[in-house]
Amino acid sequence: MIPRDYLTSRSTRLVPAETLLAWYEPLRVEGYCRACPFYGSFWSCPPHPFSGEAFLRPFSWALVVAERITRDPRTHPRRPLEEIFQESRRELGQELLRFLSVQPPGEERSLEVLIAGNCYHCSRCSRDEGKPCRFPRKMKYSLESLGFLVSDMVQELLDLPLEWPSPGQEPAALVAVALILSHEAAPLERFAGPPKKKH
Ligand code: SF4
Question: Name one Pfam family in it (predicted).
């Protein structure tokens, strides 16, 4: 087994769900999405037949989860940081799906998960072929696609500076972001637990 070549550090912040509306700018964010060559190609991404505000409305609490991903300096760099980021983002997504699956009966329906970035469960999304989602229970909407300025939200709520890759220059870290929405604060407090570092 190849040893893990990166480190992650998690930050979380529990807030009333309506707090997120401070970063709700659907027209601006939809403009960013329209510029993406994959616009309309994933069921997790826009256009959606509902607004982000309507999606948020039934929930009282939100847990913002940010996973800061850096290379492990004890390992030899063998792949791009972007590839590491995608692997870590999927691990976070899988962890969130497991969390939903172990909720007491009835409680899982009071929770919803959103993950920044497009769905990753199929090599080619069935939306591109005009077909229904293959795994609707696994598919989680993209946080940006609901109209939220994710980077501003993370920087301001978690005080976590974000960096982006630029030609010829790798950032020191990339950050995977997710959101859990709930009717009650208790399940979100269970997920957040004490701050932890993985090696
Ligand atoms: S699970 Fe597959 S079909 Fe459904 S949104 Fe994700 S990639 Fe598309």
Answer: DUF2284
In a domain, 1, yes or no: no
DSSP string, 151-192: HHHHHHHH-------BTTB--S-EEEEEEEEESSSHHHHHHH
Domain that residue 187 falls in: 6-193
DSSP 127: G
Total domain count, the chain: 1
Is residue 199 in some structural domain? no
What's 145's DSSP letter? Answer: G
Residue 198 maps to a domain: no
Q: Report the separation in Å between the CA atom of 156 and the middle of ligand 1, taken as the mean of its atom positions.
A: 31
Give the pLDDT confidence of 47-73 residue by residue, as tens digits: 999 999 999 999 999 999 999 999 999
Smallest Cα–Cα separation from 20: which of 138, 182, 189?
182
Tens digit of pLDDT for each residue in 11-21? 999 999 999 99
What is the C-alpha to C-alpha distance for residues 94 and 138, in angstroms, rounded to an integer?
A: 9
In a domain, 126, yes or no: yes
pLDDT at 197: 53
Whole-prediction pTM: 0.91
Whether 19 lines ligand 1, by a CB cut-off of 6 Å, is no
Please provide the size of the chain in residues. 199
